[in-house]
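Predict the assembly for these three chains.
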Amino acid sequence: MVTHYLSLSVILFCLGILGVVSRRNVFIVFMSIELMLNAANLGFVALSRLHVNMDGHVLALMVMAVAAAEAALALAVIILLHKHKGNLDTNIFSLLKG
Amino acid sequence: MTHTVTYLGFIPLLPLAGALVLGLMYLSTCQGKQISERIYGILGCVGPVLSFLMAAKVFFALMSLPAQERFLTHKAFTWFAVGDLNVSMGFLADPLSSLMLLFVTFVGSLIHIYSIGYMAGDKNFGKFFAYLNLFLGSMLILVLGDGPVVMFVGWEGVGLCSYLLISFYSDDPENVVAGNKAFIVNRIGDLGFVLGMAFLFWGIGADGFDYLSLKANAHHLTAPIGLTVCLLLFVGATGKSAQIPLYVWLPDAMAGPTPVSALIHAATMVTAGVYMVARFSFIYAHVPVAGEVVAWIGILTALLAAIFAMFQSDIKKILAYSTVSQLGYMFAGVGVAAYSAGIFHVFTHAFFKALLFLGAGSVILALHHQQNIWKMGGLQSKLPITYWTMLIGGLALAGCPPFAGFISKDEILYSALATGHVGIWAIGVLVAGMTAYYTFRMIFVVFHGSPRDQEAYDHAHESPKVMTIPLLILAAGSLFAGSANIPAIFGGHQRVSHWLAPSLVEHHPHGGLGLEILAIGASILAFVIGISIAYRKFTVKVDEPDYQGLYNFCYHKFYVDELYHWVIVAPYQFAGKAISRVLEPYVTDAPVQASGWLYRMCGLAFKVVQVGYVRIYAVYMVIGLSILSLLVSRSLNF
Amino acid sequence: MLTTYLFFGLALLAVLGALGLIIFKHPMNGAMSFVVTLISLAGLYALLSAKLIFAIQLIVYAGAIMSLIVFIIMFLNIQEKDLPLDPNRWFYVAGGIIVVGPIAGLLINISRTLPATEVTVFDDGFGSVKEVGQLLFTQWLLPFEIVSILLLVALVGAVVLAGKRGVN
């Protein structure tokens, strides 16, 4: 049943949110974001199957391409972060503190 | 019946464009290497001269039309339209404005040329010409505007330029104060003008707010509104044209360069009030009471200013008070509904007063900026051209027949007499005698006798040609301008009065031959008495008298400036101080401070939320989404 | 029935992998756990007849992107002591579940309103390389080109950011 696939997609997405919220390790945060993107992809493909229309596949491809671009930049930023601070803690970025 | 001609718009546009070009040139070079004065001078004079040529073209175009069709219009664009108020940037050339146009551009061009010589060597040469061009452009908008609103644009424009040019030598704080005084006093008048315009619109403005429409609807104006409009507009005129009680700024305005005094504060801008009253003759003609007020204020101003002029020692101040006095004559003229006589006096006055000021400028320049007449004397041989031209100007001002001033002044006095205003006429004749006295007091002290300051006398020399030629041209104007309106008693045709007739609403009084002879005789007698007293007192070498008693009172101008200071300025200052010390910190500022405090407290409260960690911001976002989901779930009954 | 069993098996693996990602302390363990999720997702794509996506998920995601991440983790040589302490991680997880609960509930409820379509594997061209490729290069040509420019920009950006020298 397509509904099951969509439910799985929602569960994975919520797990991604939990990862972003609860962890301070920048790698885990990054991979949690990837997890959310994958959850969305699963939703696209499942709905594509439901309507027997391949537009969802194309969208999933686009998301993958964007994820690849994001991965390249995010890893570059992580390397910079590690170079500057010698640390992988997201909490050291607190310039916005009021 | 009107005709549309496009070139009308170019007449004010040319000097304005000149002002823009000169101003940009000056701004771009005032820090570094200066552009040569020759370039500034030529560029500065091109606009006015071209405007004069176009004004002449307009004049001849009007001449070729039949008398009742002499209305050329040009509507450049619609400025704004709100409800019934539909104002376009339009221009109107009729006999009245074309006459003003002609002499404004003519005198303006001459003074521009004269300024090349007078301002030579000044470090702000370019700025001066930019301002002067801006002034001429504004003045032409004032004269050519086809309705009160456009006129007001020019009215404010000339006020601005007047301010800028009075405080032109801004190194001296006194000049800046004089500029401020002129500007502020004019604001009082302008308030009257604006209110007058508003009432006029309220009365008859709905069917078009330009002169021709207003004129056609003038008979719909009810008497109370008409009176209000007339008096309020006249308040505006007293500000701009320096009448009682707002005349105090004009003598101080002499702080500006002398060509400015000649152009703005004698020949053109200060006559704007007279022009305005004549322009609105279609309203004033219906409200005789307003005319009475105008005439009496005018003639009393003439008397007061003439008294002051008799005691001044600064050559420019004498001329300034004489200008106020002559403006008083003009208002007396338009007040007794002799609009063409008033305008004709504006016309002739522009020539001889500009001439006198420019001559005074020549004297001042020759003596290295000495303005006190009691430091001059015997300059006749050193400055022959200046002397002879100023003598002509003086004769014209004093009202010596057949010079221009005599004919125009006599026209006003005769009109006053013929309309039954004997009091105005009598004061006018008295003032005519005083005018002759103070004019020749000045000329005799400056040019006759022996030098009072030998060193300055030795260094004095005649001004360059670029200054003397405008003097000669204006002298010719002072001699012959009167011939344009020779009254019938001398075999003339009063061509100016007939020319102006289509623009004005006036009835020429017919007082008969006896009254006319009486008026002329009295004027000539006053002139002769005035000049002979001056001759007896001042052709011998006299030093500045030490004024006592009543004379001292006159010398200090009746202490009017001091009176204004104590009655108006000082209470204002006191009130201002009281407000700034009591009202502001404790009453008006308290809510402001409180609101600031409130926001600061709110900020402190919300500051807690801004922890600075990105993932916490993500939590906020998710919490928001969560609440939204709950709401949606409820509304969808899940 | 086989597809149903396969779905539940793969779904369980995916969720377990995701949980591992959140729970494991060391990023390397998390990454390995995440690879399990990605491969399970590839299997789910196959069950949904998305043949091209299945292949790309395996090659690009589980292959390229994850190996890049693992490579960087190893390149930085992260030790236990480098890792940030997460003293109140479990507090955040518990709070997160409470907050995320309504969102998940809403979305799942919405998905249940969809028609109950049985998922059978198509053996025709649906989701094959040719069909999706035709769609991608005709109807979706402009977004495709824009994405290619985005990738180029990301490439340049990554070089600029990571290639900076001279900063301690």
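The radius of gyration of chain C is 20 Å. Chain C has a mean pLDDT of 87.
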